[in-house]
Every structure is written in structure tokens, then in C-alpha cells.
DNA sequence: TCGCCCCTCGCTATTTCTGGGGAGGGTGAA
DNA sequence: TTCACCCTCCCCAGAAATAGCGAGGGGCGA
């Protein structure tokens, strides 16, 4: 592992806000000798955050032009699990070519490598490094640092999730065993009567469980309760 | 990185089926000198697979007793992103204690470390190492191999996803934008009427979307459709 | 052009769920 | 022991979802 990296990884776990996140990306960029390092994520509530070394002009332009919807990096990474070299992506569409041209004009390097990461509840993040170099030099660099990058990306995401969790401050309700079973059966598509039969209890009793679960979860109706239970990992279908 | 590990990682990418997956876990177990190594995953269609070194008696018993629903390891990992030491988990419930007792009686070691991994479309996997040892020895081992384990887990998952993608005759249902929006609103607890109002369409139209989504997802009712859409990562509440 | 899928709207009858209200006994922790 | 929570069962009326039928216009790729 590269010198100084270990220390940076530990500092990442002490990050408290977007500004310090940003300075971590800057340190990493300098450490690896790259043009850019960017960490960008969408939390479970759908809010987007970004910390990185792109110029503010480029970030503004990206948002203004809604490039998020045509960026092949986003597109490609959302569908896969493994890290991706930008050269592997599909840049054939007209929109993609225009986007690339604009990106290069705003200081983005021609080479990139992005690592998609997924957390609970649909959390999604992208860790990207970017530079200007030849294909050969880039591939050598990637081969050398690939594994470190995966570790770094994970450290970033771990911290981002921790910060998210702290803000949400949801007390995370727990369901009783019978409530869990009842909600699970309903989530599997059984009707109340079927679920009750499955559990060997009366439909009335089953209803009490579902109602109790609904109240605990703060759900508006049964379907909502199932959705929340699933999102919170309280049940597994 | 431990000697022989590099070679094993490369071999993982040549795995072709469950049997060779299994032998990879056995090699890893021997390499690290552990009691067990298990890789278990749920693909985007909800099918479960497992490859590991647990005795077949234990695997059978696990399935028979439906331990999946009370296993604190599954529960804990489903709710988090970062690797977890089994000792950190909540073993206080009665069911958890009974499960632990049974597990120990079937050759499962007292120490465990599990890495949750999430892929596209709600894919979820768990990479676990297990051994019998003291808390101190275990923590030392984890500290030493933590990063290698993350890499290994990723290599396993990369291959599992590749194999899934190849086999998957199930065309992985996709929802149209309006269907997605409709299902999302229902998942948030809105009634049909409210969801329709939110989308600015008639309730009848909304119903058509929900029905279409239900059929695509092979769901028995609306709640089931919501559960499947969530599990497959098609919607985010 | 044809076919497929998407988007939009309508009707009816039946089944199911929802939201209140009760009651009693069991268990585990403070 | 008390208190809180869990498990079980019951009634009812109104609201909502379901299953089935129908219609038409638009877009996109073969």
C-alpha cells in the first residue's frame, strides 16, 4: 500500500462534513498524482451529495445541463457491480459525445476509473479517479492501485453512510417475532386469511399483528408497512 | 497479501458452477487456516445460492428450521454496509440464542466475520469466515486480513454476478417510468386516489399501471408487487 | 407498414382491507 | 410484584382494492 494512504484512510473516518470530505479527495489526488478524485453518492432518501476536485465551473455546468441523465459513467456504473474503466463504456451516442467534449473542455482528464458501491436501502455511490494520460500508462496505474482504490472507496462510503445515519436519527423500530412473520407473509403476497392459516391463527389475530407493525413503523397502510419493513431490513422476503 | 491468495483470486474468475465455487471456499479455508469459509448470495430474481464448507447436516438443518429468518448474521448484515464481527451482533433474543446453540453443535466456530455485498437489482451476498478461537486471537486475525477479505469477497461476487447474468433466462422485469412512479407512490403509503392525484392522472389509469407492474413482477397483489419492486431495486422509497 | 409497448380513460360487482372498539392470559425485566 | 409487552380472540361499518370487460392515440423498431 502506498505511503501515506493508511493515514488518509484513518482520517476519512474522522470526516464530519462535506468540506472535510472534499479535502480528503484533494489529499488523495495529490497522493496519487492524479488530475481528479471524486466521491459522489445518493442516500436512501434520494438526496445527492458530492465531494471532489472538479472545478466548480464544471460541477455547475454538469448540474445545469442535467448531465446526470446522459453521463455514460453514471449509466454504466448503475448497471454493474465491478469497477469500470471509462474506455470500456459506451460513448457512441450523440449525447455522450457532446458530454465528453464539454467535460474535456472543463479540465476533466481523458482517462477515468469509477467504482460503484451500493449500500442498504438503495444507497448508491460512485468513487472516481481521473487523469490525463495515455491508455498504456493509465492501465498500468489501474493495475497497480486497483485494490487500494476499492479499499479507499469503501472507506469513503462507510463514512458517508455513518454521517447519513447520524442525521436521520430514526430510532429503528423492532417487530415482535409474530409481527415479523405476519408482515413477511403479507409481503409474500398472501391475503390476510392465507397468512393467518399459514401461521395457524385466526385472521383477527393476524390483523392485530399487522396493525401493531403498522403503528410501530409509522406506516399509513399495510403496503406502506411492508415497504418500510423491507427498507429497514426487518423482514426478508 | 498472503502467499497463494493471488493465484486463488485468479482461479475464482474461472469458476463455472457451484461445485467449483465450493472448492474455492475450501482452498481459501485451508489457506487461511480457518474452520469455515462461506459465500452465499441472493440474485436479482430472489433465488438463493450458497457455496461453503459447512457440513451438509448443518446446511440442511438451517434450511429445514428456516434459520434464515432468525439468523442475527443475516439480519445484521442486511441492515448495514460494512463488514461485521459476529460478536458485535445482537444475540439477545431467545431465537438467536437457540440458533447459536444449534450452530455450535453442528461444527460452526464461535468466531465469525461477515462481509455484506450489494450488487445491481437488489442482488445481495454474504461472505463469511468462521473459526473457533479466543476473542483476542480473532481480532488480531481480522485486523491482519480484513482488507484481503474485502478483495476476496468482491472477487467471489464478481464471478457470481457473471454466472447469474449468463444463466438468467428470466429477463429481469423492467417497469416503465409511469409504472415505476405509480408503484413508488403506493409504496410510500398513498392510496390509489392519492397516488393518481399526485401523478395528475385518473385513478383508473393509475390502476392500469399497478396492474401492469403486478403482472410484470409476477406478483399476487399490490403489496406483493411493491415488495418485489423493492427487493429488486426497481423502486426506492 | 406492422406489431409491440406505453399512456390515457371508462364501467361494474365482488372481495378484501381498514380503523375503531373490546377481552383475557403469558412472560420477562425492573 | 408490577408493568410493559406479547399472543390470542371477537364485532362492525365504511373504505379500498381486485378482476374482468372495454376504448383510443402515440412512439419506436423490424
Account of the protein in words:
Chain A has 237 residues and is an alpha+beta fold. Chain A has 2 domains: 5-168, Beta-Lactamase; 177-231, Orthogonal Bundle (Arc Repressor Mutant, subunit A), CATH 1.10.10.10. Helices cover 54% and strands 13% of the residues of chain A. A 5-stranded antiparallel sheet of chain A has the order 2-1-5-4-3, with helices on both faces. The mean pLDDT of chain A is 89. Chain A binds chain B through residues 44, 46, 78-82, 118-123, 147, 150-151, 154, 157-158, 161, 177, 180-181, 184, 186-191, 219-224, 226-228, 230-233, 236-237, and chain B through 46, 68-69, 74-75, 78-82, 95, 118-120, 123, 147, 150-151, 154, 157-158, 161, 186-191, 219-224, 226-228, 230-231, 233, 236-237. Chain A binds a DNA duplex (30 and 30 nucleotides) through helix 7 and helix 9.
Amino acid at each position: 500500500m502506498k505511503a501515506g494512504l493508511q493515514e488518509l484512510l484513518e482520517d476519512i473516518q474522522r470526516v464530519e462534513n462535506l468540506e472535510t470530505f472534499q479535502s480528503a479527495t484533494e489529499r488523495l489526488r495529490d497522493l496519487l498524482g492524479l488530475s481528479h478524485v471524486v466521491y459522489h453518492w445518493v442516500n436512501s432518501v434520494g438526496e445527492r451529495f458530492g465531494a471532489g476536485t472538479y472545478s466548480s465551473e464544471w460541477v455547475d455546468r454538469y448540474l445545469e445541463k442535467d448531465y446526470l441523465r446522459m453521463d455514460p459513467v453514471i449509466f454504466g456504473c448503475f448497471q454493474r457491480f465491478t469497477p469500470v474503466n471509462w474506455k470500456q463504456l459506451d460513448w457512441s451516442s450523440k449525447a455522450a459525445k457532446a458530454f465528453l467534449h464539454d467535460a474535456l473542455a472543463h479540465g476533466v482528464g481523458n482517462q477515468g476509473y469509477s467504482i460503484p458501491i451500493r449500500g442498504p436501502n438503495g444507497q448508491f455511490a460512485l468513487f472516481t479517479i481521473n487523469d490525463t494520460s495515455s491508455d498504456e500508462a493509465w492501465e498500468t496505474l489501474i493495475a497497480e492501485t486497483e485494490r487500494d482504490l476499492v479499499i479507499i472507496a469503501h472507506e469513503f462510503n462507510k463514512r458517508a453512510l455513518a454521517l447519513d445515519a447520524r442525521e436521520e436519527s430514526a430510532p429503528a423500530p423492532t417487530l415482535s417475532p409474530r409481527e415479523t412473520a405476519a408482515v413477511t407473509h403479507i409481503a409474500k403476497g398472501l391475503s390476510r386469511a392465507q397468512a393467518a392459516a399459514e401461521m395457524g391463527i385466526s385472521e383477527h389475530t393476524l390483523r392485530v399483528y399487522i396493525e401493531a407493525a403498522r403503528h410501530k413503523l409509522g406506516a399509513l397502510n399495510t403496503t406502506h408497512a411492508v415497504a418500510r419493513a423491507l427498507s429497514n431490513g426487518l423482514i426478508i422476503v
